[in-house]
Amino acid sequence: MTGTLRQLAALLRARDALDAQIAALTGRSARPGDIGEFIAAQVFDIELVGTATQAGYDGIFRSGPLAGRTVNVKTYGDAFAGIDISPHTCDFYLVLSGPARPPGAVRHHRWRISAAYLLDARRLLETLTARRVKIETATSIRRGDLDVAQVFPTAGANAPIRLTPEQAALLSLFG
Nearest 5°: CA angle at 84, between 80 and 90? Predict the structure, then answer.
């Protein structure tokens, strides 16, 4: 038992050292959400707000067809488990998701981006309200809702934007 605790303590110290390096690189914490916001800002040209605790949105698109629109960036191990929909308004939800976790799999989520979804917040709320879905943390989203909003690795039929090859390559770094 003592050997297991010593090993765990050593692993946690190593993780703390890596988290400190990530925080120094990004200027934010090493929490998955903050890392996702940093990646999204770089890939999608988003000006992040000054604080990671801003209510409603995390940043504003600086360029492209969505310039000037607000975005709430969400990072999940598996977006199909539901997304956190805030009562505060934003124009879009940008969801960075890892692969779906197989049933019965160990709870550890490797940090990966296997898909990105850009959902129009107003349309999403209208759709969910019409379905009488309770809006909250881990709001249930149908696969079809995400499929049409997918922008990476391929774009859904009604995706609000199309990624450039450079943007897709940058997101692929985290696959």
Answer: 120
Instruction: Report the mean per-residue pLDDT for the chain.
Output: 89
Cα–Cα distances in angstroms (integers) from residue 125 to residues 17, 60, 91, 120, 165, in the given order: 40, 20, 11, 9, 31
Closest to 77 (Cα-Cα) out of 115, 23, 29: 115
Alpha-carbon distance of 86 to 118, in angstroms, equals 16
**How does pLDDT run across 121-139, given as a tens digit for each residue?**
999 988 888 888 888 777 8
| DSSP collapsed to 3 states, the chain | CHHHHHHHHHHHHHHHHHHHHHHHHHCCCCCHHHHHHHHHHHHHCEEECCCCCCCCCCEEECCHHHCCCEEEEEEECCHHHCECCCCCCCCEEEEEECCCCCCCCCCCCCCCCCEEEEEEHHHHHHHHHHCCCCCCCCECCCHHHHHHHEEECCCCCCCCCCCCHHHHHHHHCCC
* pTM metric for this prediction: 0.90
> Six-digit token pair at 134?
């309770």
Q: Are 140 and 82 in contact (CB under 8 A)?
A: yes
